[in-house]
Amino acid sequence: MRTFSFSAVAMVLTVCIGQASASITPGVPIMVDFGSWDAGFITTNGNSMAMPGFGQTHTDLVDANGASTGINLLVTDSFYPWWNTSGTTASTIFPASASRDGFYVTATDFGAGAPDPTGGFELQNLDPAYTYDVLLYGSRAGVSDVRESQYTVTGAGIQVLLLNASGNVDNYVVATGVVPDANGKITIDVAAGPNNNHSAQLAYINLVTLTAVPEPASVTLLALGATALLRRRRV
Ligand SMILES: [Ca+2]
Ligand SMILES: [Ca+2]
C-alpha cells in the first residue's frame, strides 16, 4: 500500500504560494495615495494608505485600471502619526484627492507625543522581469519656505531625489529604471533634504506611482528565445 505524505504536499503548496509573482501590466501606473481616509481624500484605484505606523500594510495594490497586481506595501519606518491635509488641489497632473493630503516627517513634535524625522516603506513582490519608474510627489500649499524632501529609492541600487513641497502644484521627481533587490523589493525612505530650511525639517510624501517598464535585456532574451523556437519548429 502506498502512503501519501500530506506534509510534503503542504510544503510544496507553501513554496508555490510564496513564489507567486505579481501580475503587472507594463506602462500602467500603480498609485499609492497617502493620507486621510475621509470623503474627498480617496482616489479611485489609488490604493489609499492612511495608516503611517511601522508595520502597517496595504496588500495587493491595484493599477490605474483597477487590476490586481499582487504587489504589497509595508511601512518599514513610521511617519509622524498625523496627516498633512494642506496639499494643493490645483494640480493638473494628479487628482486633488491624492495631491491634497499625505504623510510627513518632522524633527519637532506638534502634539502627537514625539517627533519622527524619518519615514519609509517598501513595495514587495515585484516581478523581476521588469525595471520600474518610481514617481514621488509631495505638496504643502500656502507656504513659501523650503520644505525639501529627500527620497531615497533603494532596489538593487540607490537613487536619491529631492523635491520641495512648499507651494508645490505640479513638480514631481522620478527614479527611473529601478531594479528590485534580490527579494523583489523596492524601498522608499523619506527625510528632510539638505536645503530644507523649515525649523521642524518638515518633509512630505503625498503620493507615489510605480510603473513597470520592460527591461531591454529581458526583451532581447525573449526575442532570441522566440527565434530559437521558430527555428526548431522549421526543422
Ligand atoms: Ca520614523
Ligand atoms: Ca488622499
Overview in brief:
It is built from three helices and 13 strands.
Question: How would you characterize this protein structure?
Answer:
The chain is α+β, with helices and mostly antiparallel strands and 235 residues long. The chain has one domain (22-234). Helix content is 15%, strand content 30%. It contains three helices and 13 strands, in the order H-E-E-E-E-H-E-E-E-E-E-E-E-E-E-H. It has helices at residues 6-18, 96-99, 216-234; strands spanning 30-34, 48-49, 57-58, 72-77, 103-105, 119-124, 130-137, 148-154, 158-164, 173-178, 186-192, 203-205, 207-214. It has a six-stranded antiparallel sheet with strand order 3-4-6-11-8-9, with no helix packed on it. It has a five-stranded mixed sheet with strand order 2-1-13-7-10. Strand 8 (148-154) and strand 9 form a beta hairpin. The longest helix is centred in the last third of the chain and has 19 residues, at 216-234. The radius of gyration is 21 Å and the shape is globular. The N and C termini lie far apart (46 Å). The model is unreliable at 1-20 and 226-235 (pLDDT under 50). Bound molecules: calcium ion (2 copies).
Jot down its keywords.
235 residues; alpha+beta; 6-stranded antiparallel sheet; 5-stranded mixed sheet; 3 helices; 13 strands; 30% strand; disordered N terminus; binds calcium ion
